[in-house]
């Protein structure tokens, strides 16, 4: 029996890179999203509303996936609303597929907010974990939509008999347009604006992030990890951290990113400078840059998510992820973090998204 993949969130950083990998490996691959992705050759796109069970049931009527990869989420004003909406998205999707009895495995992507807390209480004193974070760390005693999404997967697995895997990447670095959590492209847009306006490329985060150790997750490595877990019996019914496999300090990487854009940089100066505030008036500037260089995307909000980069770089502690669990089972994937950023910048240039 051939593998039939359903990638939920196929237009995002994680979903689009995963869909490309699956197709390259010969999987019959469907991509579900609100706005279908037509850029990936071989992807069978489905437009559906995850909050509408009737719509999902109709759109998925003739599709019997063997593997479901859930990479989507929806941002809301409060964590209570995040929980209500994002758990319903997972529940509706799995309910729409339940009667088919075709699903063998479900992979869910969450992230390090599993350990650091939700947006409302992100990395606040009293909830800070020991680092590097490890999968055995208990859940925090706070509301968290990642927990709610996991619980929906566990309940459906118990009911329908499929296996599952949970994937917790650090900041995901990869190309996507319209993504809500996109540090790499956000920094590329910020650096481009700094170069055009003569502003310094100023590190917006905390002393702990500037001086401490960090890691990130390349979108292509995350895709490989998800496929590995879905097809490796020893990895079934397990939660995994996923990171590149190296560590770095922002005080080392920041100046190299600046040099790649030929801009002057400044580091941590004793105060956290919000990137969201720094870029709040840059939408007209980006439109001018896009017109000057004939760029594909003139809407800065389709490329940059400064609010989320502020969350990542403003943490009051250094954050690394332990990958021992995956390594022991046999996942050996590795990605150089500097290459993750520089490869992304070249891709953005080659696709005419930055000058």
Overview of the molecule:
41% of the residues lie in helices and 14% in strands. The N and C termini lie far apart (46 Å). It has 2 domains: 4-169, Rossmann fold, CATH 3.40.50; 178-215 and 247-319 and 335-351, no CATH class. α3 (79-98) links the parallel β4 (67-70) and β5. The model has no long low-confidence stretch (mean pLDDT 95). The chain is α/β, with parallel strands linked by helices and 355 residues long. The chain is globular. It comes from Dyadobacter psychrotolerans. Residues 59-355 form the PRISE-like Rossmann-fold domain. It holds the Pfam family PRISE.
Characteristics of this structure?
355 residues, alpha/beta, Rossmann fold, 2 domains, seven-stranded parallel beta sheet, two-stranded parallel ribbon, 41% helix, 14% strand, NAD(P)-bd_dom_sf, PRISE-like_Rossmann-fold, SDR family oxidoreductase
Strand order of the largest sheet: 3-2-1-4-5-6-11
What is the CATH class name of the largest domain?
Answer: Alpha Beta
Number of domains: 2
Count of individual helical segments:
14
Task: State the separation between the terminal residues, measured CA to CA.
Answer: 46 Å
Overall 3D shape: globular
What is the CATH topology assignment of the largest domain? Rossmann fold
The succession of helices and strands, N to C, reads EHEEHEHEHHEEHEHEEHEEHEHHHHH
User: What structural class do the secondary elements suggest?
Assistant: alpha/beta
Q: Could you list the spans in which at least 5 consecutive residues all have pLDDT below 50?
A: none
CATH superfamily of the largest domain: NAD(P)-binding Rossmann-like Domain
CATH-level-2 architecture of the largest domain: 3-Layer(aba) Sandwich
Average of pLDDT: 95
- What profile does the largest beta sheet have? 7 strands, parallel
Q: Can you count the beta strands?
A: 13
Q: Give Rg in angstroms.
A: 20 Å
Q: What is the helix content? A: 40-55%
